[in-house]
Amino acid sequence: xxxxxxxxxxxxxxxxxxxxxxxxxxxxxxxxxxxxxxxxxxxxxxxxxxxxxxxxxxxxxxxxxxxxxxxxxxxxxxxxxxxxxxxxxxxxxxxxxxxxxxxxxxxxxxxxxxxxxxxxxxxxxxxxxxxxxxxxxxxxxxxxxxxxxxxxxxxxxxxxxxxxxxxxxxxxxxxxxxxxxxxxxxxxxxxxxxxxxxxxxxxxxxxxxxxxxxxxxxxxxxxxxxxxxxxxxxxxxxxxxxxxxxxxxxxxxxxxxxxxxxxxxxxxxxxxxxxxxxxxxxxxxxxxxxxxxxxxxxxxxxxxxxxxxxxxxxxxxxxxxxxxxxxxxxxxxxxxxxxxxxxxxxxxxxxxxxxxxxxxxxxxxxxxxxxxxxxxxxxxxxxxxxxxxxxxxxxxxxxxxxxxxxxxxxxxxx
Length: 414
Prior knowledge:
By secondary structure, this protein is an alpha+beta fold. The chain folds into three domains: 2-80; 92-259, nmb1532 protein domain like (Four Helix Bundle (Hemerythrin (Met), subunit A), Up-down Bundle); 279-395, Beta-Lactamase. Helix content is 57%, strand content 12%. Helix 6 (92-119) runs antiparallel to helix 10. The protein starts with a helix and ends in a 25-residue tail after the last strand.
């Protein structure tokens, strides 16, 4: 045991020395070579411990934050996950990894679009490619929910166990990624770009944003998530799981339920009652009512984020829980965003309270109405989208007064 402790302490001292070399200007590739030669591989948990020790010994957090990506570059290929535990399907760590997988799909698509942009022969081709790049970055902005769950659900539990490095360093890197994504989206909204403008956008704006997301995926999967699996208790993971849906998911809707957390939460929910001015129901009863409605509901809160939608058997427009917590403007194609924004602005300002539309969709007559929700004082609470398939109801005639089961389009009794 004493030999193991000495070995661990020795590895950490060497790793600490190597990280300090980065801060003195040594190239990451040189440090990586020295690490491999000296240590071979580094256990994932020791990386966090060393960074945390350096901060406690006086290395400024800002300095660690500034060179965090250099740490990753130096450590790539040296971190071992040999001792890492595996998360079961539906577990919060499994969900984080599935989201990272979806993010990688977007990043790979962007790499291809960057190459195509460099080769674009005409302005028209370039504008079409830039439009596709913008759609990919709109999708990547969904990473906000991934980071928010990590910061607000995972980090507090790590801090309870004395692990403060991730919340002081990684949260700062998350904020940098947010800023880079915002800068990329803002730049892509400036209008038509010629060849020089597009080239000027790629290297300084677009590529740094997508690279930063990729770097964060590495940090999470190689260091943060394995360490969190080792640290949090089963009850703490239950809390993370049960609160995750409140924040929402990133480009992925968990289809697997983590039954351990579901069973733990079930006794608490059985006797709950939600009280309304006109009565009360259990969550199970309320869900049954909402899923039985002959129309679809989607609720967007006062900050323009999608917070709820009904899950009827035959939804008109497909929704997945990955949309929860997302800005509603990003759920619409660019050509219609200005209409959505006008409705929200008019509702928020009190100029309007309803906005109806009707369209032909796949041979069906679809009625869509947006309704402003306000409290008793008239304060804006959000917007409710009500979508109905009125195809059969438009064909009704006469009356149906006698009991007759079946679809409403069938011939009615008298």
